[in-house]
Amino acid sequence: MLDTSNPNNYEYTTKHLEIHILGGLKTNKLESLRVTISIQKPKQHNILRHNIDLYNDNQVEKFTRKIAERLEIGTSIARRTLQDLTKELENYRFLLLEEHEKQYQPYFKEITATEEKEAITFLKRKDVLKKTNELIGKSGVIGEEHNRQTMFLIFTSRKTNNPLHCISLGSSGTGKTHLQSKVAELIPEEDKVEITVLSANAFYYFNRTELQHKLILIEDLDGAESVLYPLRELQSKKRITKTVVHKDSKGTTRTIHLTVEGPVSVAGCTTQEYIYEDNSNRSFLLYIDESAEQDQKIMDYQRRASAGKLNEQEEVESRELLKNVQRVLKPIRVINPFAEYLELPKSVFKPRRTNSHYLQFIEAITFYKQYQRQKQYDEVTGEEYIKTTIEDITETNELIVQVLLRKSDSLSGACRNHLENLKKYLDQNNQTTFTNAEIRRNLRVKETTLRRYNNQLLLENYIKKVKGKKGQLYHFEILNIDEYKELKALIKKSLDNCIVQINLATSS
After folding, report:
1. Mean pLDDT for each consecutive 10-residue tract of the chain (508 residues)?
2. 109, 154, 342, 361: which has the fewest Cβ within 10 Å?
3. Phi then psi dihedrals of residue 369, to 5 deg
4. How far are the Cα atoms of 25, 30, 299, 307, 312 from residue 302, in angstroms, in the given order?
5. Which of the 8 DSSP states describes residue 208?
6. Which residues pair with 245 in a beta bridge?
7. Alpha carbon 96 to its chain's center
8. Which of 281, 493, 505, 301 shows the shortest CA–CA distance to 407?
9. Positive or negative: CA dihedral 296, 299, 303, 309
10. Whose CA is closest to 368, among 424, 412, 328, 316?
């Protein structure tokens, strides 16, 4: 019998010979069985060591004669022993392969009938979006009420044929990665791929359908810069293909095509908005809440965690319910009968892509509420589908205002946050003008950062320079304090007008 208790030194002992397989077995090349053998008679010190492919008949025959000559044993005994050893090693290698496949096969949880019923009951609630947001909060996601719900719905869209994507933006240390990872904990393990660093060609070597309807999580876009191009192709074309040269076992060179199918949903984090503009155009941009109120919420949570006063059981139960909710959602086509009445505000930059995102987000909400919709069937193809309702569009409009507001803004996210903080400071201090020194001191902004913000604000005509009193520094003045509120009102009015048009069309 083959003794494999020592993985680096298998032992095979018969009446006539004692054999050791040094270094174990390789499982990556099944067409050969190359091993390093140490062979001797029992209780003797005349040892023969040899490296051999046991599937090569010529090598085995030569080795048989060498054993017979060196150890003074019959060739028939040596040949039979090597044949039996080969069979034992072959069987053991198959066992190793089975264990390897079990170890690396994707995790998949079969939910119980009780869990399935609870998840479907939850999805049938009329206030399912509100309750989902509450559960996300109970699972341990602190604050970020708007961003966390939007992100969860974007992650859910991975199960549709037109998934959405998102990029979390904010300065260093504000919790971008934390928010993404905490919301990702609500997605089943079998449906996500987490990436820290990938080589340029890594995506092309996934199995053809391995990434289909998966959520791809990138901790920091800076660490995955080499794969941003194939990611963009996966987002846009829903497949990537690479042609490579391959040499087969006979040495013949030929070209093969490596194809990986989508669709996928991609989420990433970065502090550098403009560097990843091509990826940003394909994604929802979620700006992290950097307010003092959010800081306070997080610090309060940290203190309660340190004091052992968190309801950890509630967090676990909330996460498991939302995971099961994801598991019971089934692929189904969504038709939006009101799509022709939906128009984006004229202020939105790059309206073609943003319009597509808007319609896809409505579909994602309808898809999430599939257990509240009556299934219908296409008369020609027999395909099953559900329809979007006016309520779905209304709920989408409430969530997407902030996204469209950022898409309509000529300022970067960081510069806009600075300008709004600046407005708040001036309002609190009943001022209309400010100096750089004053802002650096009171808003704690670094000089280089403040200079960059000022240059952008001056260039876009959000502020202007005004002379101070004699002997004093230059002052700055905001040209229109209410411009952001006016832009938000304009966007909201445009979205509300779409609902009005739909109601008029359906009532007539």
Report:
1. 88 91 84 90 87 92 92 91 92 88 71 92 94 93 90 94 88 81 92 78 82 88 75 84 76 82 87 65 83 86 89 91 94 92 83 86 94 90 91 91 84 86 90 88 88 90 79 79 90 90 84
2. 109
3. -100, 30
4. 50, 53, 5, 9, 13
5. T
6. 255
7. 32
8. 281
9. positive
10. 328
- Structure token pair of residue 229: 């191009």
User: 361, 299, 369, 294: which is closest to 329 by C-alpha?
Assistant: 369
Measuring CA to CA, which residue among 293, 257, 107 is closest to residue 187?
A: 107
Backbone angles phi, psi at 29, to 5 degrees: -125, 95
CA distance 277 to 274: 5
* Nearest partner of 159 among 214, 114, 105, judged by Cα: 214
Q: In this structure, is the dihedral angle defined by the CA atoms of residues 27, 30, 32 and 33, taken in order, positive or negative? A: positive
d(CA 148, CA 267): 13
- Report residue 1 as tokens: 């019998």
Which residues are CB-neighbours of 33 under 8 A, at least 6 positions away? 25, 53, 54, 55, 86, 89, 90, 93
